[in-house]
Design brief:
Helices cover 77% and strands 0% of the residues. By secondary structure, the protein is mainly alpha-helical. Helix 1 crosses helix 3, helix 4 packs parallel to helix 6 and helix 5 runs antiparallel to helix 10. The protein is globular, with a radius of gyration of 17 Å.
Length: 257
C-alpha cells in the first residue's frame, strides 16, 4: 500500500477540517461529513481514512461530552446504564459485520432520518425545556442503548441524530442536554469501532492526532456556544446535519456509480 506524501500545508488543512468537524459535531453531530471527505481528498486510502476518522472523531466527541457534562452540572452517574448497554450493543454490532447483510439498514435508515427531520422541523417547541419522560430511563437505555449501540458498531451513519431525537422524544430532555448525552453515547460506541480499526492496522496516528487537535478545539468552541445559546443555536444546525446526512445516504444508495 502506497501512502500519499503529505506536506505541511496538507497537515494544516486537515487540522482545519478537524476543527470545523469538531465544531459541527459537538453541536449537531455529523462531523464525519466534513472530516472523512477531507481525508479522502488528501489521498488517504478509504480503509485507512475510516480508521483515522474514528481516531480523530473520538477525541472531539470526548472533549464535547466532558464540556457538556461539566458546564451543565450533570454527572455521568445517571448515564452508566446507557454507557454499559451501548458498549454491549456496539460490540455485538462489530461482531455482526461479517455475518449480516447491511442491505436492509441501508434502505430503512434514510426513512427513519426523514421522520426525524420532519418531526424536529414541525415540533417547534421540542427541546426548549425538559418534559415528562414517556418511558422509564432503564427501559429507554435497554432499547436505545443496545439498539443504537449495535447500529453504530455495525453500520453507523446518523447515529448521533437518532440518539438526540430519542432523548428529546422519549426522555423529554432539553435540546442542550440531549446533544450532550448523545456525545457520551457516541464516544462509547466509537471506542469499539476504533478498537477494531486499530487491531486491523488501519489507523495512521500522525494524521489522526493532527486532526484530533483540531477536533478538541472545535468541540470545545461548539459545545460552549451550544450551552450558552441553547435550542435556538442547536436546532437549525441539527436540522441541516440531518438533511445533509439524508441526502448523502440517498445518493450513495440510489445513484448509479
Amino acid at each position: 500500500m502506497v501512502l500519499p506524501d503529505l506536506t505541511f500545508e496538507i497537515y494544516l488543512l486537515l487540522f482545519g477540517a478537524g476543527l470545523f468537524a469538531g465544531f459541527v459535531d459537538s453541536v449537531a453531530g455529523g462531523g464525519g461529513l466534513i472530516s472523512l471527505p477531507a481525508l479522502m481528498a488528501a489521498g488517504i486510502p478509504p480503509h485507512m481514512a475510516l480508521g483515522v476518522n474514528k481516531l480523530q472523531g473520538s477525541f472531539g466527541t470526548l472533549s464535547a461530552a466532558y464540556n457538556y457534562m461539566k458546564k451543565s452540572n450533570t454527572g455521568f452517574k445517571q448515564l452508566y446504564p446507557g454507557i454499559v448497554l451501548t458498549l454491549a450493543g456496539a460490540v455485538f454490532g462489530a461482531m455482526a459485520i461479517s455475518n449480516l447483510d447491511p442491505f436492509f439498514l441501508k434502505h430503512i435508515i434514510p426513512v427513519l432520518l426523514f421522520i426525524v427531520l420532519i418531526y424536529t422541523f414541525f415540533a417547534k417547541n421540542i427541546g426548549r425545556k425538559k418534559k415528562k419522560a414517556l418511558i422509564p430511563q432503564g427501559v429507554f437505555y435497554l432499547i436505545f442503548g443496545l439498539g443504537l449501540g449495535f447500529y453504530d458498531g455495525f453500520f453507523g451513519p446518523g447515529t448521533g441524530s437518532f440518539w438526540t431525537a430519542a432523548y428529546l422524544v422519549f426522555l423529554g430532555q432539553s435540546m442542550t442536554l440531549s446533544v450532550g448525552y448523545t456525545k457520551v453515547m457516541n464516544f462509547t460506541s466509537n471506542i469499539v469501532a476504533l478498537t477494531v480499526f486499530i487491531i486491523g492496522g488501519n489507523v495512521l496516528y500522525g494524521i489522526g492526532l493532527c486532526m484530533a487537535a483540531g477536533q478538541i478545539a472545535g468541540a470545545r468552541i461548539g459545545s460552549n456556544l451550544a450551552i450558552e445559546k441553547g435550542v435556538h443555536f442547536i436546532r437549525p444546525l441539527f436540522l441541516c446535519v440531518v438533511f445533509v446526512t439524508l441526502l448523502r445516504m440517498l445518493y450513495q444508495n440510489y445513484m448509479p456509480s
